[in-house]
Amino acid sequence: MSEPVILAETRAGVRTLTLNRPDRLNAANDALLLALTEELRAAEADSAVRVVVITGAGRGFCAGQDLGDVSGRAMTFTEHLEHTYNPLIRTIRGLGKPVITAVNGVAAGAGASLALSGDIRLWAESASLIEVFSNIALVPDSGSTWFLPRMVGYSRAFELMALAERVNARDGLRLGLCEHIYPDETFRQDVQTYAERLAARPAHALKLTKQALAAAMSSTLDEALDREAELQQLAGDHWEHEEGVTAFKQKRAPEFVREG
Ligand code: LHQ
Q: Which CATH code fits 203-249?
């Protein structure tokens, strides 16, 4: 039996999905992309899962499209993206639970887009990111053209895309491509610890927050204010809100994790 392309494990409410083609720096083939999307959908449906972590096995995070894989060539580029990468990125951003991309090594091409797509991006010290597409005369895809300029501005994004320069972890943090850097030796445990902090937060409120931010990224202030007012009603009517207020008054930590 061959190794699964995605390894999945749940610990303390944190579902970790590991891209598992380490000999190719987890370059993506269709099987990996479809399995990852499927796993994300399963995590959405599983009430025991409160946070999802996407990371890579071995020394790479994801080297983008597997350039040796021929299965994608049965389709046009457009069809291939619509069949594999685009549903994956949409699923991550639309997931009703926080997704952490834990970038353990190099993230290149569509792998860079995947690294940027997390709600929270945690990098190991040896992580790096390359908008490598122009090396093979392609256009950045899988969301890079949307994510990167919002993080670093238009001109820096264009430069990174045009020159395909490797961004190391220190520069990644400076540019806002990640929230935190952790030492390689403790990276996996540090990611788990961070994810467990998120898992203890109010899941329903975070789901609505993610929804509000996603919509606000392409809306006017007026629209954002209207949406906040609507979503606040949903949050305020939920037991989590009552628990938060009660805990505050009782001078204790709120308990947002309940069975069932
Ligand atoms: C790989 C790959 C790889 C196969 C490393 N494939 N084997 C495109 C087309 C169609 C539709 C959809 O969208 C896309 C989007 C894209 O993602 S286009 C961009 C595709 N990716 C690339 O062009 C990246 C190619 N890789 C590299 O530039 C380097 O490998 C990076 C900078 C990622 C890492 O460099 P190093 O750390 O020096 O590692 P390496 O080059 O020695 O790679 C290690 C092994 O992994 C090596 O195999 P080998 O048998 O020699 O040990 C590579 O051939 C293999 N590998 N990327 N994408």
A: 1.10.12
